[in-house]
Amino acid sequence: HDIKLGRDGFFTYLRREGLLVKPKKSYTKTTFSKHWMKKHPNLLKEEGLHDAEHVLVTDASSRKIVGHHVSKDMKAESVVKALKMAIKDKRYIGNAVHHSDRGLQYCSAVYQNALQASQIQPSMTDGYDCYQNALAERVNGILKQEFLLHRCRTFAELKILVRESIAIYNDMRPHLSLNMATPNQVHNRKGQLLELA
Questions:
Q1: Is residue 79 part of a domain?
Q2: How many folded domains does the chain comprise?
Q3: What is the pLDDT along the chain (197 residues), one digit of tens a residue?
């Protein structure tokens, strides 16, 4: 359509027309990192390459959500399901760094064993600093705010909406950081080193 409109101008237009989604103001901390289990060093402190949060596993190079699982709890067994979905793509086995916060579920033997079985190197934030886990925070924010996941009435409805939202995010939502390509377009390019987040 040859429309020349930047991000700020677009949001100014949406605000003027009353079309912005109002973000939730409450903040809930979901990570308990003061536990006794082994925590891994932050291998990406300088590079800021990978992040993973809750039920999502995101490829840091392509921004594609490669694994997800909707669960009513944050138990390690639930979170491992998202990881297992991601590592069905064999390109990650022995060729990836998994970056997360220091939550119990990521430090657990169940989760660490799943990483080790696929020869994926663990990396963790130095503490609770959302900027060290920025990609995960960004992707979670996009799904919650742009796709309105917090407005679901039932768990079954949430599962359907998450699956549909991830498909739209991966296949149809262009990213400025990807030169306006979609995550799937970048992910499917050959010869690219991809790392798990």
A1: yes
A2: 1
A3: 777 777 777 878 888 888 887 766 555 566 666 776 777 666 545 433 232 234 889 998 899 999 999 888 778 888 899 999 999 988 888 888 999 888 888 899 999 999 999 999 999 888 666 667 788 888 888 887 787 666 677 888 888 888 999 999 999 999 988 999 999 999 988 544 444 44
Per-residue H/E/C for the chain: CCCCCCHHHHHHHHHHCCCCCCCCCCCCCCCCCCCCCCCCCCCCCCCCCCCEECCEEEECCCCCEEEECCCCCCCHHHHHHHHHHHCCCHHHCCCEEEEECCCHHHHCHHHHHHHHHCCEEEEECCCCCHHHHHHHHHHHHHHHHHCCHHHCCCHHHHHHHHHHHHHHHHHHCCEHHHCCECHHHHHCCCCCCCCEC
Question: Looking at the domain assignment, is residue 97 inside a domain?
Answer: yes
In sequence order, the β-bridge partners of residue 97 are 121
Range of the domain at 57: 33-187
Q: What residue type is assigned to position 40 of the chain?
A: H
Instruction: Tell me if 174 is assigned to some domain.
Output: yes
* CATH number of the domain where residue 68 is located: 3.30.420.10
